[in-house]
Amino acid sequence: MLELKNVTKQYRSGIFGNAVTKAVDDACFSIGENERVGLLGESGCGKTTLARLAAGLLAPTGGEVLFEGRPLDKMSKTEQKDFRKNVQIIFQNPQLAFNPRMKLYDTIVEPLRIYGLAQSKWEEREIAAEYMAQLGLPEDIYSRYPHEISGGQAQRIAIMRIIMLEPHLIIADEPTTMLDVSVQAQILNLMRALLDRRKTSLLFVSHDLDVIRAMCDRILVIKDGSIVEDNTTQEIFNHPRDEYTKYLVGNSVPPVCGEKSASA
């Protein structure tokens, strides 16, 4: 479904732009239908950059991203709109993705309006009510603004806006990091139930071992912008191959700075 081929993302800095930082370096992986893949690594390793490249929010410096065999940079406007509908991203702080001046009802139904999924105002409200019930949200939330709800409610609304479109792939960029532990569990259980119901693929970005173990069947381990290991969740935790992976799962001491780890 989604494939990244030798994808690199560089940023230039300095007065003359001659300092180059590789946020992602020659990344290769693919995600199939109904597959749940985790992207595991420490803060600053390039996880979010890689997730945004996969979502088409960033253009790669090198390599290419393909969706259902079509390179993103060669898609027509119609194909791009189809891609945007079918590949959705959940951000770490959902409230930053909401218009602070827009009431939550308009925020909730905005995807229905953009893609013409409701034929009338009545149908629009019926669809919204159905999903509100599924996610345990009260209808009196419609008249509120984003700053008037909790982080857990905001993340539920962010998920709701996405699942209404029935995408083929959801990219979740540390969606529970800013929530307390009890709310984290609720959101993760909700996501699992919704994914099971719709057979949706998932790319789940996290540095939390317990969370990624619970959500994913396969894990990509990323270090300094490079994917150093790609294996099933069971193998990653029970029989890690790369020294950095061993360190992350607690089976080893940290690798020496500058030392190259063994290839997966």
Descriptive report:
The protein is α/β, with parallel strands linked by helices and about 260 residues long. Helices cover about 35% and strands about 25% of the residues. The chain contains 9 helices and 10 strands. The chain has helices at about 45-55, 75-85, 105-115, 120-135, 150-165, 180-200, 210-215, 235-240, 245-250; strands at about 1-15, 20-30, 35-40, 60-65, 70, 85-90, 170-175, 200-205, 220-225, 225-230. The strands form 2 sheets. Strands 6-7-8-3-9-10 form a 6-stranded mixed beta sheet, with helices on both faces. Strand 7 (about 170-175), helix 6 and strand 8 (about 200-205) form a beta-alpha-beta unit. Helix 3 (about 105-115) packs parallel to helix 5 (about 150-165). The protein is globular and about 55 Å long.
Quick structural summary:
With 264 residues, the chain is of the alpha/beta class. The chain has helices spanning 47-54, 77-86, 104-114, 121-134, 151-163, 181-198, 209-215, 233-238, 243-248, and strands at 2-13, 19-31, 36-40, 62-67, 70-71, 87-90, 169-173, 201-206, 218-223, 226-232.
Number of DSSP helical runs: 9
**Largest beta sheet: what is the strand line-up?**
6-7-8-3-9-10
| Major sheet summary line | 6 strands, mixed
Roughly what percent helix?
25-40%
Radius of gyration, in Å, reads 19 Å
**What's the order of the H and E elements?**
EEEHEEHEHHHEHEHEEHH
Total number of β-strand segments? 10
Give the distance, in angstroms, between the N- and C-terminal Cα atoms.
Answer: 23 Å
Coarse structural class: alpha/beta
From the spread of the alpha carbons, the general shape counts as globular
**Mean pLDDT across all amino acids:** 88
Strand content: 25-35%
Low-confidence segments: 252-264
